[in-house]
Amino acid sequence: MKQLIVDLDDRSYPIYIGEGILDQISTFFRKHQINDQSPLMIITDDNIAPLYLKKVIVSLQESGYKVCEYIVPAGESSKSLSVLEKITGVALDAGLDRKSSIVALGGGVVGDLAGFVAASFMRGIPFIQIPTTILAHDSSVGGKVAVNHPKAKNIIGAFHQPQMVLYDTSTLRTLPEREIKAGLSELIKHGLIWDAKFAEWNQLNAEKLLALDSESLEYALYNGCKIKAHVVSEDERENGLRAILNFGHTIGHALEAVSQYNKLLHGEAIAIGMVGAAKLSVHLGYPQRIYKETKSVMKKYGLPIQIPNHLNVDEIMEAMLHDKKFSEGQVVFTILKDIGEAHIQRGISIDLIREIVENLRLEE
Amino acid sequence: MKQLIVDLDDRSYPIYIGEGILDQISTFFRKHQINDQSPLMIITDDNIAPLYLKKVIVSLQESGYKVCEYIVPAGESSKSLSVLEKITGVALDAGLDRKSSIVALGGGVVGDLAGFVAASFMRGIPFIQIPTTILAHDSSVGGKVAVNHPKAKNIIGAFHQPQMVLYDTSTLRTLPEREIKAGLSELIKHGLIWDAKFAEWNQLNAEKLLALDSESLEYALYNGCKIKAHVVSEDERENGLRAILNFGHTIGHALEAVSQYNKLLHGEAIAIGMVGAAKLSVHLGYPQRIYKETKSVMKKYGLPIQIPNHLNVDEIMEAMLHDKKFSEGQVVFTILKDIGEAHIQRGISIDLIREIVENLRLEE
Ligand SMILES: NC(=O)c1ccc[n+]([C@@H]2O[C@H](COP(=O)([O-])OP(=O)(O)OC[C@H]3O[C@@H](n4cnc5c(N)ncnc54)[C@H](O)[C@@H]3O)[C@@H](O)[C@H]2O)c1
Ligand SMILES: NC(=O)c1ccc[n+]([C@@H]2O[C@H](COP(=O)([O-])OP(=O)(O)OC[C@H]3O[C@@H](n4cnc5c(N)ncnc54)[C@H](O)[C@@H]3O)[C@@H](O)[C@H]2O)c1
Ligand SMILES: [Zn+2]
Ligand SMILES: [Zn+2]
Questions:
Q1: What is d(CA A222, CA A34) in angstroms, rounded to the nearest whole number?
Q2: What span, in angstroms and rounded, lies between the C-alpha atoms of A255 and A349?
Q3: Residue in B146, B156, B324 closest to A97 by CB
Q4: Crossing angle (nearest 10°) for helices A350-360 and A313-321
Q5: Cα B168–B173–B175 angle (5° rounding)?
Q6: Which end of chain B has less Cβ packing within 10 Å, N or C?
């Protein structure tokens, strides 16, 4: 088992990563003095509940915790205010109070939703992340929690750091293959923006990671979390450095938006987005290898690198220009100066971006 | 004009109190460098809009601000997630971004709602309070913002401090008389819990305050805000001292709940609650004058001191025991050790509270 600390003054918290953590959930709760006088609420989704919920509940109950649960339908549409309102009602009925904790058992959807429930219930109660997807190595670190508005993703939310993250790699074995690949996309991103050595390791270990080899997973998730944690520590409220985490996301979000959040997975969309941003880096004069290696690593992991033909370029551009990241109308893009070295580039022309997007339809 | 600072490290902010501030809104915005590149949104209600909205909009527009507005129906029921979702949609359409500010023009309802919109929109943007009720001297200081859940008041919210509070006492002249009295109830509370001199001043100046004499209002609101600000500075997140602000609120909230939020105003309910808490103080051995003076000041301001006969004691007790303040099942009560000196008393027996409540029905 590996452990690291997200360093945020009095909001610092540990991440534990390893096989079999789910069997010892209550040990971690006790170790970190999670209150056992007030009831806890576990929030999860209906794919994860039949697999892991019972194990978590039994472990906690045997240790003397009072536990209630809320199971949402799997999928992005559960990240809504109306689901939050229902959960809040059940929490009130179950007697949760200001000393209760919310436990998120699941992927990024459950983590973001449960995190915002915890942030807003009685103006903020503790919460604990138990991630069950690879992508959640990203979403469970950094304290960004949110629900969606019909008009925009993640637009209603908060910064709310968890008490701890308990990451059991054995839960990843039940993930659908497509979700595994999409999650690895975000892991690859962390190497590309910050750590050339880890980026190279990712190039060399695609097979092992895709096979969910336990030791490789632990190593890779540890590094991914560490990079994310480091960036977040330096910039908790997203005023500067944190923007490098958006590598691949400007184009990626637009692709998600125009494919109406159901055709491309987030990790797939940003894989294409990273290839685009890498190409933009080269356009701006940075080394050719940025583009070559970004593209090759995506291929090794079976991730898409081409914008699907049925998506319309005008609509993609339109979606991009509505993105909240274009603060005050400035076009800002996260690019790479080299593998392992991200950079925030301002004042990029819309025409150049359009050219990149058009090229991405021909990529292969 | 009077000015004071709420001292909260990097979240400190000024409160300006005086006649005619509304005519110079944009001056204050400029002075405090409110961003003029991104659009602002003013949130208000349909009683206040016809009286003051235009003045505020014109002042801001003439100074070069881009302004949009959202008018909610007056009343507690606008403090809901569904209204928040609608406002968020309009904010997105109007192009608000992370540098935009939300402006709350109104009483506590508008302030709490707009504050939570600001806290949650894009995970938090600046907001500015322009209070227009007397009660808002309380609600606009301290950063507690929230909406209601059908099952509980103020249960979904955040701590989000404003950039500044611009309090124009001339707006109070259009307040219905009942709202004036109810607002003064909270002002009286601030004297009773913290400042014997101010408490005495309130005893002596009921007539002037009820007539909204400009100088008296400025003095009283300044003192009320100062006491609230002081308590909040010492305990931003309500871990300790802040509980003294609940004087009169334990019984008061229960009365509001059983009268279904529409028969008794908040200020009226806590006036009765303060008389009850003062009586409890005497029961616990503190000076008789606590009860005498609390009761007499309420009478001078025309505030109720008796629980209306049609309210059922069992239901009141039930509502009180469901209050979120009874953390972990402990019965905690804010009482007075003397006029101007509040105290948090733990471990009070439910039977004693019931006796107090029963007596409050006979009060006159
Ligand atoms: N907060 C952040 O910083 C941040 C960062 C990135 C992404 N996100 C958010 O994360 C979300 C995407 O996260 P995700 O990819 O984990 O999606 P997800 O939570 O929807 O999980 C993907 C699918 O896998 C299923 N699943 C989860 N764990 C499983 C397991 N162990 N076995 C079998 N099935 C399992 C889920 O039920 C779901 O159907 C998006 O809403 C995105 O906005 C947030
Ligand atoms: N955040 C806090 O710390 C805090 C503290 C106390 C109360 N509150 C909240 O404040 C709310 C009550 O505030 P309130 O008493 O100001 O209620 P309110 O905002 O509903 O205002 C009372 C009534 O007066 C009208 N009104 C407001 N200003 C007016 C004016 N200048 N002229 C004419 N009419 C005017 C309103 O339209 C409304 O009908 C409650 O929701 C309560 O939960 C919050
Ligand atoms: Zn992402
Ligand atoms: Zn009050």
A1: 24
A2: 19
A3: B324
A4: 140
A5: 100
A6: C
- Among candidates B82, B84, B328 on the partner chain, residue whose Cβ is nearest the Cβ of A37: B328
Helix (H, G, I), strand (E, B) or coil at B110: helix
ipTM score: 0.92
3-state secondary structure B241-262: HHHHHHCCHHHHHHHHHHCCCC
Instruction: Give the single-character DSSP code of A5.
Output: E
Q: Give this prediction's pTM.
A: 0.94
Angle at the Cα of A83 from the Cα atoms of A60 and A50, rounded to 5 degrees: 40
Are B278 and B184 in contact by the 8 Å Cβ rule? The answer is no
Q: Which residues line ligand 2 (CB under 6 A)?
A: B 45, 47-48, 51, 74, 76, 79, 106-110, 112, 132-133, 135-136, 138-139, 142, 144, 154, 171-172, 174-175, 179, 266
* Phi, psi angles (nearest 5°) of residue B107: -90, -160
Q: Which CATH class is domain B200-360?
A: mainly alpha
Per-residue pLDDT of chain A (364 residues; tens, 9 = 90+): 999 999 988 899 999 999 999 999 999 999 999 999 999 999 999 999 999 999 999 999 999 999 999 999 999 999 999 999 999 999 999 999 999 999 999 999 999 999 999 999 999 999 999 999 999 999 999 999 999 999 988 999 999 999 999 999 999 999 999 999 999 999 999 999 999 999 999 999 999 999 999 999 999 999 999 999 999 988 888 778 889 999 999 999 899 889 875 589 999 999 999 999 999 999 999 999 999 999 999 999 999 999 998 899 999 998 888 765 554 555 789 999 999 999 999 888 888 999 999 999 998 8
For B305-329, letters b (16+ CB in 10 Å) and e give: bebeeebeeeebbebbeebbbeeee
Q: Which helix (H) or strand (E) holds A216?
A: helix A214-234
Reading the block at residue A83, the tokens are 């689901």
d(CA A172, CA A305): 24
Place of tokens 């993250």: A165
What is the CATH code for A2-174?
3.40.50.1970
Instruction: Sort strands A13-18 and A2-6 into parallel, antiparallel or unpaired.
Output: antiparallel
Ligand 1 atom with the smallest distance to the CA of A51 is 32
- Residue A342 · residue A335 · CB < 8 Å: yes
Residues in B 70-99 with any Cβ partner in A closer than 8 A: 81-82, 84-85, 88-89, 92-93, 97-99
Structure tokens at B105: 């023009």
* Contact yes or no for A342/A259 (Cβ under 8 A): no
Q: How many CB atoms lie within 10 A of CB A331?
A: 18
- What whole-number distance in Å separates Cα of residue A117 and Cα of residue A127? 9
What are the Cα distances from residue A134, in Å, to A50, A186, A245, A256? 19, 9, 16, 19
